[in-house]
## 1
Amino acid sequence: MHDVIVIGAGAAGLLAAARAAEQGRKTLLLEKNRKPAVKILMSGGTRCNITQSTDINGIVSAYGASGKFLHSALASLDPQAVVDLFHAEGVQTKVESTGKVFPVSDKALDVQQALLRRLARSGAEMLVETPITSIDRADDRFVVVGPRQTWIGQTLILTTGGQSYPGCGTTGDGYGWAAALGHTIMRPRPALVPITSAAEWVRGLSGVTLPDVIVRVLEPGQRKPLAQQQGSLLFTHFGLSGPAILNVSRVVSGHAQPASLILECDLLPHHPETWLLEDLQRASQTRGNQLVLTHWTEHLPRRVAEAIFGIANLSRDRKCAELSRAERSRLASTTKKLAVAITGTLGFEKAEVTAGGIALNEVDSRTMQSKLVPNLYFAGEILDLDGPIGGYNFQAAFSTGWLAGTSVANNTNHKN
């Protein structure tokens, strides 16, 4: 029998198992994949953005309403402590202009290997290629059943992840086990996922990146956005991607009728519409013979400017002096409120994280222990927690895993 059984050897599971074992608990970590931490290996373009260069409040704020749940976890392992942990394992880090923290080597493999070194030193046992078929409770113990073996544990930590990138093995197994043990599962849905559009003009811009736009997700007839983000945007053959798009995608995937939504893009967020109108007025007076399209390429890439002219129903041959007041208004408005008809998202297959999961009000945020089942703990993406792009989700996984692993050693409910 084991003191602690951890299921899922990802970011949260590796730290949870290591922490439990370091404190004298006989710990078993079970992983169904051939390799542990597969998602770490492929994240950040195989570079692995381990955290964000901010403090506890910065992480909490980024998570919005659910951020307060992370206070205790972050107090036990904050962003600087995550960086220090990897430095202690010989993995030096760097902070990029976006605040993202990466290994200096740009190799996610170094992150995985650091966690495995920590786990090996802890004395925890890890079994890979070990899928679980069922989890039951018997005599206040957990009975974990695999195809060829059964394990008994006093404490169980579920760190099975969500449903994003199912090719990594994150196929939502943990939700069924948690539900069978009495927990509520908030509907899982893709987050940090590209958004799809059938608009031909969008496909025509495939490959074009705009470094700074504001995107808003709107319901028809409403001006208050369901979500709004500023950042980079990438046009693709299937629709839209880039940080600004990924950060609003959870609203699209969670909507009952995503195709009814409008994605509105402010392509020049640092210039109000009045400034653009004045700019066009000045151009008509000082460079009247210049094509308006040529002038507009001073603000935007030519392909984007051409698309805007088509949407605004403006001739590319119009000169600055020929543009009427109504046409100037149409051009400025289209640039500031470019509406993109969307169809949905690319789904879990291309989602970086999962929104939804174990209901947070059923988990003690001070320990990560279930409020419903003694000695059952959760950590990582299986929880109803999803943050923006930029290392926030790995930080939450590391912190909740660390807290869960630490808490099991302090749990007085164990039976010897």
Note: The two ends are 11 Å apart (CA to CA).
## 2
Amino acid sequence: MGPYSCAMADPNGRDNDGLRKFNRGRVLGAVRAGRATNRAELRTATGLARSTITGLVGELLAERVLVEVPDAHDSDRRAGRPARRLRVAPRDDLVVAVDLGHSHCRVGVLDSSAQVIHDESAPMDTDSSADQALDHASAVIDRLLTAIGPERSRVVGGAIGLPAPVNPSTGTVGPGNVLPQWVDRHPAAELQRHLGFPVAIENDANLGALAEIAYGAARGLHDVIYVKASTGIGAGLVLGGQLYRGSTGRAGEIGHVPVDPTGPLCRCGNRGCLETVASVTQVLAMMQPPHDQPLTMARVAQLVDADDAGANRVLGDAGRTMGRVLADMVNNLNPEMLVVGGELSLAGAPLLAGVRESIERFAQPGIVRDLRICLGELGERAQLLGAAALALSLP
């Protein structure tokens, strides 16, 4: 099992084969994401024993899943054995990635370097009907696989992302008021039965974190907070090179941290949660009155580029509110980088400036000094690319 997948094996080692597959996936995932290039770095990235690393690396090299190549930075070494670096062997595999947001469905077929071969996106009210969303995703996957013809034999796995907590031990959607129609469903297993190849599932913010570490702004880093600010707001946490989900998959649910006790009622049942103040829905609602045409985030980004005072104020306020919540997380976790992604990040500078202002004010100075705060590099593709990284980590 890969280090990012849920409910495909038992990470607690209740059977030896499951534990071996789980650790094998951790090793492969660390090399693929650039967090480790040799056995010593793998021990640091995974926390596994030297003997375990030696055995798993030997197995992966024998199967040509990993290869060892000369270290390009070791060209001046004149004595002793030349240094070697571990790399994932070139593959011709394809994977299917599904990104289900609150209001959209994106499906893609990607290759082993996460290049999109075919993709399709459509508006979708994911919240109201799990059956409709999964049926739509299945139909799109069938169309895309038909389009690639004989190449579909190269598809080795898939992954699906959801804007809801996913229990890491069962792969089921957790209880609560976030996607209530999905509670206790096992979407990965349902798709797997339809498609006939392994499918994993993950929370969408976690997928964004995986993507930015594998392909984006946080490449090679071990301790990262990724914030997906869209219709909802959530954080993906990578600690010590591994996703941290919490015991029931609810780690990083910052969208439901109350920031205004007298604020609007949130779908979770509380008042004044972060997403009722700083989400895409709220930002567009606050900015709409002076504008005749319905606003979109693309239009808001244009207003920011034109230095519109109203856009800068609303987005700055949203960033400051978000940053106040994130400051506590930064104090507790001491990450190397904070990456702001999601649809709201299309607005760019004023949002990021607001986040940075609050973190500099409320987080510990020693932590802030070494913290990099940046926008994600992958934009709206982050969850699709994260799903591809997840699928590629499957055994």
Note: The domain at 219-376 is CATH 3.30.420.40 (Nucleotidyltransferase; domain 5).
